[in-house]
Specification:
about 80% helix; about 0% strand; about 325 residues; 14 helices; mainly alpha
Length: about 325
Protein backbone atom coordinates (compact mmCIF):
# COMPACT_ATOMS: atom_id res chain seq x y z
CA UNK A 1 0.00 0.00 0.00
CA UNK A 2 2.84 2.38 0.83
CA UNK A 3 4.41 1.73 -2.57
CA UNK A 4 1.09 2.56 -4.29
CA UNK A 5 0.70 5.77 -2.31
CA UNK A 6 4.20 6.79 -3.32
CA UNK A 7 3.07 6.57 -6.97
CA UNK A 8 -0.36 8.19 -6.56
CA UNK A 9 0.70 10.96 -4.16
CA UNK A 10 2.46 13.20 -6.75
CA UNK A 11 -0.62 13.13 -9.00
CA UNK A 12 -2.99 14.25 -6.26
CA UNK A 13 -0.35 16.66 -4.88
CA UNK A 14 -0.34 18.50 -8.22
CA UNK A 15 -4.12 18.85 -8.00
CA UNK A 16 -3.69 20.31 -4.52
CA UNK A 17 -1.03 22.72 -5.81
CA UNK A 18 -3.40 24.05 -8.45
CA UNK A 19 -6.17 24.35 -5.88
CA UNK A 20 -4.02 26.25 -3.38
CA UNK A 21 -2.48 28.49 -6.05
CA UNK A 22 -5.94 29.62 -7.09
CA UNK A 23 -7.29 29.98 -3.57
CA UNK A 24 -4.26 32.10 -2.59
CA UNK A 25 -4.46 34.26 -5.69
CA UNK A 26 -1.13 33.11 -7.10
CA UNK A 27 -2.99 31.91 -10.19
CA UNK A 28 -5.54 34.51 -11.33
CA UNK A 29 -8.89 33.06 -12.27
CA UNK A 30 -8.81 34.63 -15.77
CA UNK A 31 -5.67 32.54 -16.47
CA UNK A 32 -7.44 29.21 -15.88
CA UNK A 33 -9.18 29.04 -19.30
CA UNK A 34 -5.75 29.47 -20.92
CA UNK A 35 -4.38 26.51 -18.99
CA UNK A 36 -7.45 24.50 -19.92
CA UNK A 37 -7.02 25.35 -23.60
CA UNK A 38 -3.34 24.40 -23.55
CA UNK A 39 -4.16 21.01 -22.07
CA UNK A 40 -7.21 20.32 -24.23
CA UNK A 41 -5.90 21.51 -27.59
CA UNK A 42 -2.15 20.91 -27.38
CA UNK A 43 -0.71 18.75 -24.59
CA UNK A 44 -3.41 16.12 -24.06
CA UNK A 45 -3.99 15.35 -27.76
CA UNK A 46 -0.25 14.84 -28.18
CA UNK A 47 -0.16 12.50 -25.18
CA UNK A 48 -3.14 10.48 -26.44
CA UNK A 49 -1.66 10.34 -29.95
CA UNK A 50 1.63 9.06 -28.57
CA UNK A 51 -0.09 6.37 -26.51
CA UNK A 52 -2.36 5.43 -29.42
CA UNK A 53 0.53 5.22 -31.88
CA UNK A 54 2.54 2.99 -29.55
CA UNK A 55 -0.38 0.70 -28.65
CA UNK A 56 -1.30 -2.34 -30.79
CA UNK A 57 -4.51 -1.71 -32.74
CA UNK A 58 -6.08 -4.84 -31.24
CA UNK A 59 -6.02 -3.20 -27.81
CA UNK A 60 -7.62 -0.03 -29.17
CA UNK A 61 -10.39 -2.09 -30.80
CA UNK A 62 -11.05 -4.35 -27.82
CA UNK A 63 -14.78 -5.09 -28.12
CA UNK A 64 -14.85 -6.80 -24.73
CA UNK A 65 -13.61 -3.65 -22.99
CA UNK A 66 -15.92 -1.50 -25.10
CA UNK A 67 -19.03 -3.56 -24.38
CA UNK A 68 -18.50 -3.97 -20.63
CA UNK A 69 -17.56 -0.35 -20.02
CA UNK A 70 -20.37 1.03 -22.21
CA UNK A 71 -23.01 -1.12 -20.51
CA UNK A 72 -21.83 -0.02 -17.06
CA UNK A 73 -21.77 3.64 -18.09
CA UNK A 74 -25.38 3.42 -19.26
CA UNK A 75 -26.43 1.64 -16.05
CA UNK A 76 -24.72 4.25 -13.86
CA UNK A 77 -26.40 7.09 -15.76
CA UNK A 78 -29.82 5.45 -15.42
CA UNK A 79 -29.31 4.61 -11.74
CA UNK A 80 -28.04 8.06 -10.77
CA UNK A 81 -30.88 9.86 -12.54
CA UNK A 82 -33.42 7.51 -10.96
CA UNK A 83 -32.19 8.02 -7.37
CA UNK A 84 -31.46 11.76 -7.55
CA UNK A 85 -34.20 13.29 -9.69
CA UNK A 86 -37.06 14.82 -7.72
CA UNK A 87 -40.36 15.34 -9.44
CA UNK A 88 -41.76 18.90 -9.25
CA UNK A 89 -41.62 20.80 -7.00
CA UNK A 90 -38.32 19.06 -6.13
CA UNK A 91 -34.96 20.81 -6.36
CA UNK A 92 -33.35 18.38 -8.80
CA UNK A 93 -34.98 18.11 -12.20
CA UNK A 94 -33.78 16.45 -15.39
CA UNK A 95 -31.07 19.05 -15.97
CA UNK A 96 -29.36 18.72 -12.59
CA UNK A 97 -29.99 14.97 -12.34
CA UNK A 98 -28.46 14.39 -15.79
CA UNK A 99 -25.28 16.31 -15.03
CA UNK A 100 -25.08 14.54 -11.68
CA UNK A 101 -25.25 11.29 -13.66
CA UNK A 102 -22.50 12.57 -15.95
CA UNK A 103 -20.06 13.13 -13.07
CA UNK A 104 -21.07 9.75 -11.60
CA UNK A 105 -20.28 7.90 -14.84
CA UNK A 106 -17.49 9.99 -16.42
CA UNK A 107 -14.08 9.48 -14.73
CA UNK A 108 -11.19 11.92 -15.09
CA UNK A 109 -9.43 9.52 -17.44
CA UNK A 110 -7.88 11.99 -19.87
CA UNK A 111 -6.50 14.54 -17.43
CA UNK A 112 -5.52 12.08 -14.68
CA UNK A 113 -6.23 8.45 -15.46
CA UNK A 114 -4.03 7.62 -18.44
CA UNK A 115 -0.73 8.91 -16.99
CA UNK A 116 -1.56 7.56 -13.53
CA UNK A 117 -2.49 4.09 -14.76
CA UNK A 118 0.57 3.92 -17.01
CA UNK A 119 2.74 4.85 -14.03
CA UNK A 120 1.11 2.13 -11.93
CA UNK A 121 0.59 -0.70 -14.43
CA UNK A 122 2.87 0.03 -17.38
CA UNK A 123 2.36 1.26 -20.93
CA UNK A 124 -0.01 -1.63 -21.75
CA UNK A 125 -2.66 0.03 -19.55
CA UNK A 126 -3.04 2.86 -22.09
CA UNK A 127 -5.05 0.80 -24.60
CA UNK A 128 -8.06 -0.10 -22.40
CA UNK A 129 -8.02 3.37 -20.82
CA UNK A 130 -8.19 5.03 -24.23
CA UNK A 131 -11.20 2.86 -25.16
CA UNK A 132 -13.04 4.18 -22.09
CA UNK A 133 -12.27 7.78 -23.10
CA UNK A 134 -13.91 7.17 -26.46
CA UNK A 135 -17.04 5.74 -24.78
CA UNK A 136 -17.33 8.65 -22.36
CA UNK A 137 -16.76 11.32 -25.02
CA UNK A 138 -19.05 9.83 -27.66
CA UNK A 139 -21.82 8.21 -25.62
CA UNK A 140 -21.90 9.14 -21.93
CA UNK A 141 -21.55 12.91 -22.32
CA UNK A 142 -23.87 13.09 -25.35
CA UNK A 143 -26.55 11.01 -23.59
CA UNK A 144 -26.45 13.09 -20.41
CA UNK A 145 -26.62 16.37 -22.31
CA UNK A 146 -29.63 15.08 -24.24
CA UNK A 147 -31.37 13.95 -21.02
CA UNK A 148 -30.68 17.33 -19.44
CA UNK A 149 -32.96 18.97 -22.00
CA UNK A 150 -36.04 16.96 -20.95
CA UNK A 151 -37.02 19.72 -18.51
CA UNK A 152 -37.70 21.95 -21.51
CA UNK A 153 -41.24 22.42 -22.68
CA UNK A 154 -39.95 22.13 -26.23
CA UNK A 155 -40.49 18.52 -27.29
CA UNK A 156 -37.42 18.77 -29.52
CA UNK A 157 -35.15 19.91 -26.71
CA UNK A 158 -33.43 16.55 -26.24
CA UNK A 159 -32.86 16.04 -29.97
CA UNK A 160 -31.42 19.50 -30.41
CA UNK A 161 -29.15 18.97 -27.39
CA UNK A 162 -27.99 15.63 -28.76
CA UNK A 163 -27.01 17.23 -32.06
CA UNK A 164 -25.14 20.00 -30.22
CA UNK A 165 -23.38 17.39 -28.09
CA UNK A 166 -22.29 15.44 -31.17
CA UNK A 167 -21.05 18.66 -32.75
CA UNK A 168 -19.04 19.32 -29.59
CA UNK A 169 -17.53 15.85 -29.85
CA UNK A 170 -16.59 16.50 -33.49
CA UNK A 171 -14.79 19.69 -32.48
CA UNK A 172 -13.03 18.05 -29.53
CA UNK A 173 -9.41 17.21 -30.46
CA UNK A 174 -9.18 14.26 -28.05
CA UNK A 175 -11.14 11.70 -30.14
CA UNK A 176 -9.31 12.77 -33.30
CA UNK A 177 -5.92 12.40 -31.65
CA UNK A 178 -6.89 8.88 -30.60
CA UNK A 179 -8.03 8.05 -34.15
CA UNK A 180 -4.81 9.44 -35.64
CA UNK A 181 -2.75 7.49 -33.12
CA UNK A 182 -4.62 4.29 -33.96
CA UNK A 183 -4.07 4.88 -37.69
CA UNK A 184 -0.37 5.49 -37.09
CA UNK A 185 -0.18 2.25 -35.11
CA UNK A 186 -2.08 0.24 -37.70
CA UNK A 187 -0.21 1.66 -40.70
CA UNK A 188 3.17 1.73 -38.91
CA UNK A 189 3.59 5.43 -39.72
CA UNK A 190 6.79 7.00 -38.39
CA UNK A 191 6.78 10.78 -38.00
CA UNK A 192 9.98 12.78 -38.71
CA UNK A 193 12.27 13.10 -35.69
CA UNK A 194 11.75 16.87 -35.16
CA UNK A 195 7.97 16.39 -35.23
CA UNK A 196 8.23 13.53 -32.75
CA UNK A 197 10.36 15.63 -30.42
CA UNK A 198 7.87 18.51 -30.54
CA UNK A 199 5.01 16.11 -29.93
CA UNK A 200 6.95 14.51 -27.08
CA UNK A 201 7.58 17.84 -25.35
CA UNK A 202 3.88 18.69 -25.45
CA UNK A 203 2.90 15.17 -24.38
CA UNK A 204 5.27 15.30 -21.39
CA UNK A 205 3.62 18.55 -20.28
CA UNK A 206 0.10 17.07 -20.39
CA UNK A 207 -0.01 15.28 -17.04
CA UNK A 208 1.47 17.97 -14.75
CA UNK A 209 -0.39 20.88 -16.36
CA UNK A 210 -3.66 18.92 -16.54
CA UNK A 211 -3.48 17.95 -12.86
CA UNK A 212 -2.60 21.50 -11.82
CA UNK A 213 -5.52 22.76 -13.92
CA UNK A 214 -7.93 20.32 -12.26
CA UNK A 215 -7.08 21.85 -8.89
CA UNK A 216 -7.45 25.37 -10.26
CA UNK A 217 -10.86 24.60 -11.80
CA UNK A 218 -12.09 23.05 -8.55
CA UNK A 219 -10.92 26.04 -6.53
CA UNK A 220 -12.54 28.50 -8.93
CA UNK A 221 -15.86 26.63 -8.81
CA UNK A 222 -15.82 26.63 -5.01
CA UNK A 223 -14.82 30.30 -4.76
CA UNK A 224 -17.55 31.44 -7.17
CA UNK A 225 -20.33 29.39 -5.61
CA UNK A 226 -22.38 31.22 -2.98
CA UNK A 227 -25.27 28.76 -2.75
CA UNK A 228 -25.42 26.37 0.20
CA UNK A 229 -25.74 22.84 -1.20
CA UNK A 230 -27.18 20.17 1.14
CA UNK A 231 -24.90 17.18 1.72
CA UNK A 232 -27.61 14.81 0.47
CA UNK A 233 -27.52 16.50 -2.94
CA UNK A 234 -23.88 15.70 -3.70
CA UNK A 235 -22.33 13.20 -1.26
CA UNK A 236 -24.33 10.17 -2.56
CA UNK A 237 -23.33 10.95 -6.17
CA UNK A 238 -19.64 11.12 -5.21
CA UNK A 239 -20.00 7.71 -3.54
CA UNK A 240 -21.71 6.30 -6.63
CA UNK A 241 -18.70 7.44 -8.64
CA UNK A 242 -16.04 6.03 -6.32
CA UNK A 243 -17.75 2.88 -5.02
CA UNK A 244 -20.72 1.77 -7.13
CA UNK A 245 -19.16 2.46 -10.53
CA UNK A 246 -15.98 0.39 -10.08
CA UNK A 247 -17.84 -2.41 -8.31
CA UNK A 248 -20.35 -2.56 -11.17
CA UNK A 249 -17.61 -2.66 -13.81
CA UNK A 250 -15.84 -5.43 -11.89
CA UNK A 251 -18.95 -7.57 -11.48
CA UNK A 252 -20.15 -7.08 -15.06
CA UNK A 253 -16.64 -7.79 -16.34
CA UNK A 254 -16.36 -11.02 -14.37
CA UNK A 255 -19.80 -12.04 -15.60
CA UNK A 256 -18.77 -11.30 -19.18
CA UNK A 257 -15.61 -13.41 -18.83
CA UNK A 258 -17.68 -16.26 -17.38
CA UNK A 259 -20.01 -16.03 -20.41
CA UNK A 260 -17.06 -16.31 -22.79
CA UNK A 261 -16.68 -12.65 -23.77
CA UNK A 262 -13.08 -12.07 -24.95
CA UNK A 263 -12.02 -9.79 -22.10
CA UNK A 264 -8.53 -10.16 -20.65
CA UNK A 265 -8.20 -10.01 -16.83
CA UNK A 266 -5.57 -7.28 -17.14
CA UNK A 267 -7.89 -5.15 -19.30
CA UNK A 268 -10.67 -5.67 -16.75
CA UNK A 269 -8.36 -4.49 -13.98
CA UNK A 270 -7.58 -1.34 -15.97
CA UNK A 271 -11.21 -0.41 -16.63
CA UNK A 272 -12.18 -1.10 -13.00
CA UNK A 273 -9.45 1.33 -11.93
CA UNK A 274 -10.65 3.81 -14.55
CA UNK A 275 -14.10 3.63 -12.99
CA UNK A 276 -12.53 4.19 -9.56
CA UNK A 277 -11.07 7.54 -10.67
CA UNK A 278 -12.67 10.79 -9.47
CA UNK A 279 -15.21 12.62 -11.63
CA UNK A 280 -14.05 14.44 -14.76
CA UNK A 281 -13.36 18.08 -13.95
CA UNK A 282 -14.55 19.37 -17.33
CA UNK A 283 -18.11 18.27 -16.45
CA UNK A 284 -18.50 21.47 -14.43
CA UNK A 285 -17.87 23.51 -17.59
CA UNK A 286 -20.63 21.59 -19.40
CA UNK A 287 -22.98 22.01 -16.44
CA UNK A 288 -22.39 25.76 -16.46
CA UNK A 289 -22.92 25.94 -20.22
CA UNK A 290 -26.26 24.13 -20.05
CA UNK A 291 -27.58 25.97 -16.99
CA UNK A 292 -27.35 23.18 -14.41
CA UNK A 293 -26.50 23.80 -10.75
CA UNK A 294 -22.75 24.10 -11.18
CA UNK A 295 -22.18 24.54 -7.44
CA UNK A 296 -23.56 21.04 -6.85
CA UNK A 297 -21.54 19.54 -9.71
CA UNK A 298 -18.34 21.24 -8.50
CA UNK A 299 -18.83 19.83 -4.99
CA UNK A 300 -19.29 16.31 -6.36
CA UNK A 301 -16.08 16.64 -8.38
CA UNK A 302 -14.15 18.15 -5.45
CA UNK A 303 -15.33 15.52 -2.96
CA UNK A 304 -14.67 12.63 -5.33
CA UNK A 305 -11.17 13.99 -6.03
CA UNK A 306 -10.33 14.30 -2.33
CA UNK A 307 -11.71 10.88 -1.41
CA UNK A 308 -10.15 9.20 -4.45
CA UNK A 309 -6.67 9.66 -3.02
CA UNK A 310 -7.60 6.98 -0.48
CA UNK A 311 -10.26 4.97 -2.35
CA UNK A 312 -8.32 4.74 -5.63
CA UNK A 313 -5.12 3.73 -3.84
CA UNK A 314 -7.09 1.07 -1.95
CA UNK A 315 -8.56 -0.21 -5.23
CA UNK A 316 -5.09 -0.49 -6.75
CA UNK A 317 -3.83 -2.37 -3.68
CA UNK A 318 -6.81 -4.73 -3.81
CA UNK A 319 -6.62 -5.45 -7.55
CA UNK A 320 -2.86 -5.64 -7.99
Amino acid sequence: MLGILLVTFPFFALVLCGYLATRRGLLPQPAIPGLNSFVLYFALPCMLYRFGASTPVAQLLDLGVLGVYLLCALLIVAFTVAVTRNRPPGRIGWNDASFGALVAAFPNTGFMGVPLLVALLGAQAAGPAIVTIVVDLLVTSSLCIALSRLDSADSHGAGVAARKALRGVALNPMPWSIVLGALSSGLQVKLPAPVLQTLGLLADAAAPVALFTIGAVLARSQMNSVEVIPFKDYVPVALIKLVVHPLLVGLVGLGAIALGVPLQPFALTVIVLVAALPSASNASLLAEKFGANNGRIARIILLSTVLAFFSFSAAVAWLT
